[in-house]
Design brief:
The protein is an all-alpha fold. It contains seven helices and two strands; from the N terminus they run H-H-H-H-E-E-H-H-H. It has helices spanning about 1-25, 35-45, 45-60, 75-100, 130-150, 160-170, 185-205, and strands spanning about 110, 130.
Length: about 230
């Protein structure tokens, strides 16, 4: 039963990705699909492919490292550990050349809390936001995502709910706010909606529409009498 549901989930995910890929590539938001396919692969024991996908996403956007929470969806923790090692190896392989042979100043960057952000409601806009606060933000997002992944690991909906929980927490505590940030949760919600719609006929069979043949036929009106 579980295998069948995962196969169905993979098909739905494929359809959703095909429908959105053109628009998402145009905006760069295709990066946010890195979590959901990886979650699908790790749940089907493709731990090496899942770890590699998450690791490669870090080379494009450093936040991709948080995708490690989907590795908790592996049937066994040993497989999750293998996926984590693959992710770590890919990340190190990409960043090591810059650290060893060039100028590596990523951790010198600082941010300021922007006006209009959720964080700006409790922290004065313009306040410095350094890497220590970024680590705290990441830890909170990982904690929420890991809790959802662990609690729902036997459900197909963990494929999108765990990344969604992580993303929401990250956005709430982010010092910056750009419009394309919200394409990430929107894409995950769309994938989740497709999965929910896929399950509705089996969860609520009594809600299916009856065919026209099953509908009671209305008696024909009596013919009009002409004078």
């Amino acid at each position: 039963m579980r295998v069948g549901r995962l196969v169905a989930a993979r098909r739905v995910l494929a359809v959703a990705i095909v429908l959105l890929v053109v628009a998402l590539v145009a905006t760069g938001a295709w990066l946010w699909f890195r979590y959901t396919p990886a979650a699908n692969w790790i749940s089907e024991t493709h731990r090496i492919a899942a770890g590699a996908l998450i690791g490669l996403s870090v080379g494009i956007e450093i936040w991709g490292v948080l995708g490690a929470i989907v590795l908790l969806l592996a049937p066994r923790l040993k497989r999750a550990f293998v996926g984590g090692l693959v992710e770590t190896g890919v990340v190190v392989a990409m960043l090591a050349p810059f650290a060893l042979a060039g100028s590596f100043r990523m951790f010198d960057h600082r941010w300021r809390v922007a006006t209009g952000t959720i964080l700006g409601l409790v922290i004065e806009p313009g306040t410095h936001f350094d890497w220590k606060l970024r680590l705290l933000q990441s830890a909170l997002a990982l904690a929420v995502g890991a809790a959802i992944a662990t609690g729902l690991r036997r459900s197909v909906h963990a494929l999108w709910l765990a990344p969604l929980g992580l993303v929401i927490v990250r956005l709430v505590f982010d010092p910056l706010s750009f419009g394309w940030y919200f394409l990430e949760p929107e894409a995950l919600v769309l994938v989740g909606a497709a999965l929910v719609l896929k399950e509705l006929p089996t969860r609520f069979p009594q809600a299916r529409f009856r065919s026209i043949a099953d509908q009671p036929r209305r008696e024909a009106d009596p013919p009009l009498l002409r004078p």
